[in-house]
What we know:
Layout: H1 16-44, H2 49-53, H3 55-62, E1 80-91, E2 97-99, E3 103-104, H4 105-113, H5 125-135, H6 145-160, E4 171-183, E5 199-202, E6 206-207
Helix pairs in contact: 1-3, 5-6
Amino acid sequence: MAPDSGTAEGPGPLSRRQRAAVLVAAAAVAVGLLVHTGATFLYLAPHNAATDSLGTGLNSYMAPEFVQSWQLFAPEITRTMTAVGARTELRMADGTTRTGNWQDLTAQDLAELRGNPLPSRIRQQLTTAWAALLTSHDAEQRPVGPRGLDSEQYLKRLALSRLPATPKGARLERIQFRSTDTTVPPPPWKRGGATPAPVVRTYPWWPVGADDFAEGRTS
């Protein structure tokens, strides 16, 4: 007996309601892409009437998920390199205190970024955290509002996750930061004065609590 020669049934045509749903979804995606592209363009564009009028809403949309750290039309040339270091103060088992050596956190990041074709964005967190700290503290390094306190805790947690583990029997009590600003020398063909000496700034000691450690670590 010959097998059936009928063809397999494929999916039927979409109903009017289904076609309408597809069109609405496609329109929503298109509008979303246009809004996101326009917001990114305005965020990167130089200040103008449009960016000034949309400043608050634009920043709220872009930060922190879509924030950009570069400029589209007039990129700023790096003229100063900042190296961030940290050291800790330990309370030893016998009750004495011990101050650790300075650890260059920026050098750790650069060592992993150089020569890496696919660098991790994790190694850019220190630069962002340090910039947030500088813009949320006054001239005497006191935090300005809740944002200042949040930036302190974020920087402490980031630094403690990259510093050596606390020795057994000791307790980490305080952490201190310092920055070294080095002026990038001009190119050989550009005449100019002598390159200024690096500027070193040491910041106050901050207490360390349980909330300052990354999840899963207590010291």
